[in-house]
Sequence to fold (130 residues):
Amino acid sequence: MSVIIKGKETDRRIAEGLRDTFVSQYNDVAAFQMLLDTLGDNCLDRLIHRLKIEEKIDLFKDYVALKSIAEEVRAKGNREIFIEVCKEDEARAWINDNGKYHPLVFEALYKVYRNSERLAPYLKDKKEKR
Fold:
């Protein structure tokens, strides 16, 4: 994967090292799934809450379905999430993450969740009501 990292020269070198370490450590599906599991169950609620804020979705009506979609994305979309993490091109994002990878993985998980085809009807319904 050849994503060019943006930022100051010194930041880019550090970020490239962090990204290379991430790729070598988590390129295995099982290892990356373990990293996803360390985010905890509350990460699914954070995904739903963030979507609620951005899209003004009614949680009382759709919470169970939104949680089901989030669980499916986390369980089955790990390769897609891994690729999304590797696409991060801001040097400061890698440096600020400091080798923990949780913020980067959460952001990638959110992007994959947000773009899930199963989520589209809930977003479409909301846009039609506007």
In short: The chain has a mean pLDDT of 87. The longest helix spans residues 9-26. The radius of gyration is 16 Å. The CA atoms of residues 23 and 86 lie 8 Å apart.
